[in-house]
Amino acid sequence: MAKTTTILMALRAAEQQLAVAGQATSVAQYLLQEGQGWSFTELVQHYREPATPVFLATYQAQVDRVCAGEPAQYVLGHAPFFGREFQVTAATLIPRQETEELVEWILASVTTPIRLLDVGTGSGAIAVSLKAEQPDWTVTATDISAAAVDVARANAQALAAPVTFAVGDLLAPVSGQRFDVIVSNPPYIDHSELPEMDESVKRFEPQGALFAADHGLAFYRRFAASIGDFLVPHGQFFAEIGYQQGPAVKAIFTTAYPQATVTIKADINGHDRMVRVQL
Questions:
Q1: Where S-adenosyl-L-methionine is bound, by residue (predicted)?
Q2: Distance between CA atoms of 271 and 220, rounded to whole angstroms?
Q3: Which residues are annotated as part of the binding site?
């Protein structure tokens, strides 16, 4: 009689397969929990249950894709961000934990109802999270990728966070409008960093959302040249930056806006990760 495969046995087999493929074994548990919507406690409670043939086939297919290098979030089609699940596709970056700290900084810095613009919204993680946390804020989001905006719009609808979306390059879609806060997580990786990057990021995540010219500083220069026309008096600009870019980014905005207060903020790991420009 064939031995019944339990959830725990399937998990251990997946961990072994991932290890052989040179992938993180923790992904096996991540796929199970995220795929089934289980907490760790719930996963343990299911350990001894028999795995159905459909479950095994689905889980095996997911593990195979990760072993081939595909990020687990793309395999599942969603990723956690700021306590919510966001749909992600090959048209969007996978939301990062560091970006949650940018959302936290904005929420801590602004306490009154505002008009906010998220530029380069991708999956909509920043815009939708801020709207969900502050329903009385008016939030607009743009992206040059129509496919990304489709994903962001779906996330906004799924999470009941009404955001106005527009497709176009940087600030062009909101010409003539002004905002209290503009936020962006722009492309900021220098092409010279390509050899050091994770292979799965290079192969699967949208390159246009990762890399920027001028040693990764091109978009900060573009924002410095334009945000004054889109922010109200005393408005604020927030952005994520590369961990080595703090001094250069600060110099760009200080030069463009000598009267502004430009602050570089470190992430939880102590790396420069965010900039705030207070006009």
A1: 120-124, 143, 185
A2: 18
A3: 120-124, 143, 185-188
- Which residues of the chain have a pLDDT value below 50? 1
**Both 19 and 150 in a single domain?**
no
Same domain, 25 and 146: no
73 falls within a domain:
no
Domain of residue 162: give its range.
Answer: 82-278
- Residue 220 CB contacts under 8 Å (≥ 6 apart), including other chains: 186, 188, 239, 241, 245, 249, 252, 253, 275
Domain of residue 137, CATH code: 3.40.50.150
Q: Write down the pTM of the prediction.
A: 0.93
Q: Which residues are annotated as a binding site for S-adenosyl-L-methionine?
A: 120-124, 143, 185
Q: In terms of domains, do 97 and 212 share one?
A: yes
Residues of the binding site for substrate: 185-188
Bridge partners, residue 80, by sequence: 85
